[in-house]
Design a protein that fits this description.
142 residues; 3-stranded antiparallel β-sheet; 6 strands; alpha+beta; extended; 42% helix; single chain
């Protein structure tokens, strides 16, 4: 693949569109807004931009299981809101990974599949028409 080199002017021209995409993404997707460590319950609490708060016991996070309360309290949200970071512990956790811990990978995969199945596109409509001409959806192989 050839390397593309952009001029400063070309990069500057792309910035407004990138800012607009980021703004749309912030309105439609959930990101970490804040994170704190609750000493009483020994849990990491992450507030998302949609108002949801994930509360994850530290014992479920192997990277943090042996950290002290003082170390855990020094938690930061990454600049894009996609991850949580402990500088002193050199630990980074993604919001998606934390959701996987809370909900379980199977539940997340089922939800993603259901959402994908609801997507309407011309290619899906075409495939459905072609399957209809052949007598319907193919039977699953057993």
């Amino acid at each position: 693949m050839a390397s593309v080199r952009l001029t400063d002017a070309e990069i500057s021209a792309q910035i407004p569109a990138a800012v607009a995409r980021a703004s749309r993404s912030r309105r439609t997707k959930s990101y970490a807004e804040s994170a704190r460590y609750d000493r009483r319950s020994r849990a990491l609490c992450v507030r998302l931009t949609n108002g949801v708060v994930l509360s994850i016991p530290v014992l479920l996070l192997p990277e943090l299981a042996t950290a002290t309360d003082a170390e855990l309290a020094r938690v930061d949200v990454g600049p894009a809101g996609l991850g949580i970071h402990w500088r002193r512990l050199d630990v980074d956790l993604s919001v998606a990974g934390l959701a996987r811990v809370v909900l379980g990978a199977r539940v997340l995969m089922q939800a993603a599949g259901a959402a994908g199945g609801r997507v309407r596109s011309e290619s899906k409509a075409k495939a459905a028409r072609e399957n209809g001409r052949k007598g319907g959806r193919p039977k699953a192989a057993v």
